[in-house]
Amino acid sequence: GRWGYVLSQSSGKTYKYFINGGVTTRSWFTNSSCYPLAQLSENYCQCYIIGLGENDSYNLGENYLGTSADINDNNPDQNADTYYGNYAKIIQKMKQQVPNARFFLITNPHNQTDLRKQYNTAVRYIANHFTHCFVIDLASKYESVFNSGYIDSCRRGGHYCSSAYHYMGKIIANEINKIMYDNPSEFYGVQFIPTST
Prior knowledge:
Elements: H1 3-11, H2 35-38, E1 47-50, H3 54-60, H4 62-65, H5 83-97, E2 102-106, H6 114-129, E3 133-136, H7 138-141, H8 143-146, H9 149-153, E4 155-156, E5 159-160, H10 162-182, H11 184-187
Parallel strand pairs: 1-2, 2-3
Antiparallel strand pairs: 4-5
Helix pairs in contact: 1-10, 5-6
């Protein structure tokens, strides 16, 4: 989403995008704008922010969700072809590229259906499953903000107007700052994480 531009402008840091409209955790590996770019050494990052799930739940549905048993800790290529399996595989593959990278996983604030709640449960599980992973839990903390008032009025399907993306960027930046302040030992020396081979 365009909220990443807000993070870039407010922090002065470089943000790279490995996403394309309509991408799911399944198609992320083959879409030319996603993993094929992210795996190149010149595109390695110290931190990754992942917000995948809306397209998965909407287009792939309940049968795609899977369970925590779909994650193979020894070989991500053996993960099941499910939301659990493919989401975990994204993290596992990027950890192979940048072993000490930090990950921020975003839950879907449009949490009204049981299926979306199950997908958000998967995000929380995956964040707790891996080291250096944290949840930006928009579903728990900001559901009312995203489902009423200004942001909701600017929503067109899964997309928003630029001013709503600006507001979303501020929310995400504040949540990342809070995670860093609450976990200082996790982020000490993060600026020294190598981003090239």
